[in-house]
Amino acid sequence: MNPPSLFSTLQIGPYQLKHRVVMAPLTRMRATRPGLAPRPLNADYYAQRATPGGLLIAEASPVVATGFGNPGVPGVYTEAQIAGWREVVDAVHAEGGIIFLQLWHVGRVSHSSFQPDGALPVAPSAVAIPSEFKAMTADGKVADYETPRALETSEVALMVEAYRQGARNALAAGFDGVEIHGANGYLVEQFLQSRSNLRTDQYGGSIDNRVRFLVEVTQAAIDVWGANRVGVRLSPYGIANGSGEADPMPLYSHAITSLDKLGLAYLHFIEPRSSGAGRADVNWQNVPSAMVLYRPLWSGVLISAGGFVGENAQSAIAEGHADAIAFGRYFISNPDLPRRLQRGYPLTPYNRATFYGGEEKGYTDYPAHDELAQA
Ligand code: FNR
Asked: Is the CB of 331 under 6 A from ligand 1?
């Protein structure tokens, strides 16, 4: 039998993917203001990138008003947001696509200007992100990160409930599944890692305790969706937003082993070479590969992302390191990415200046290959 390729089918939970070119979750900061609801422009953008049997993971969306760290990010906790997302989902389904929503809370990667009543951001512990990293304020200015307020133990349970409600809202919007954002230095990862979690209750200290919040949030989503329509994204060895565990192997081995027992739709890695890809172009060599290191601990579907183009994506799949590849930056600039990769067409370079915020430019105006040929 031939080894699988990017264009073999793949079963993810109840869905049969027709290819393995997944769209990575991408914050684009183009929701309505005020309201932070998806709008028709966002539906166009996702529909452009939808293919029959192709999986899109919609951008990280806060499950509660305290969960924002960027302006113009869509939420998933109001009726208007659910209605906006329903239009996005309908547009993707009309193209035959499959779409999951990434559930988010930024924790300490926020600023009081985003918080209800101008309060401090909340986090596992009162530990600020180091000053070499800068926060974005609600009006788009640069500021130092503040020292967050540590969540009380009783508030952690409420936070798990916020994720549960976010999962319910995603279901109400018609999504096909949800992904827990456990990567890039945000709330879930702040609980996981020892530098941001100094708690002395059942959510801190031992690795088992630090993994507890991730497992509880994931279980809350499972309660709503069933395990086979819930995925989790992790970034072991990542350094985004002041994150980074000194010795990732024991922590992530335990986290992945714990998740493996739950029977999830998939596990999704960001390869360390692309950690922080949203802010700068980093592409380190000689760093460990998450998919290679942890695959032996994971019995389900594995998606990997970060620095993939055509060839290294094909070989990752053919060699069995991953089952599918998620593409971020090239999916921004190539709405027809699966077809381009399949045909070997050249890729349009992306323009970092239009990643975040704005309107059509750099969002829905990247042409498909065929349109380019006609131009
Ligand atoms: C990202 N990334 C990201 N990751 C995530 O889990 N949720 C998100 O909402 C975002 N948002 C986001 C916005 C932008 C503009 C970029 C460039 C990146 C990370 C992204 O999903 C992906 O892991 C990285 O971009 C690495 O993959 P590529 O770009 O090398 O294919």
From this structure: no
241 CB within 6 A, ligand 1: no
- pLDDT score recorded for residue 238: 87
Read off the tokens for 297: 């601990």
Amino acid symbol at 366: Y
Find out whether 327 and 308 touch, Cβ atoms under 8 Å.
Answer: yes
Closest CA to 317 of 13, 11, 20, 14: 20
Q: How far is the CA of 370 from the centre of ligand 1 (A)?
A: 26
What sign results for the dihedral spanned by CA atoms 215, 216, 217, 219?
Answer: positive
Ligand 1: which atom is nearest the Cα of residue 59? 9
Q: Are 231 and 270 in contact (CB under 8 A)?
A: no
Q: How far apart are the CA of 140 and the centre of ligand 1, in A?
A: 20
| Residue 144 main-chain phi, psi, to 5 deg | -70, 150
Note the pTM of the prediction, 2 decimals: 0.97
pLDDT of residue 281: 56
From the CA of 26, how far away is ligand 1's center (Å)?
Answer: 5
- What is the DSSP secondary structure assignment for residue 282, as one 8-state letter? -
Mean pLDDT by groups of 10 residues along the chain of 375 residues? 91 98 98 96 98 98 98 98 98 98 98 97 98 93 97 98 98 99 97 98 98 98 98 93 91 98 98 68 66 96 94 95 97 98 96 97 96 76
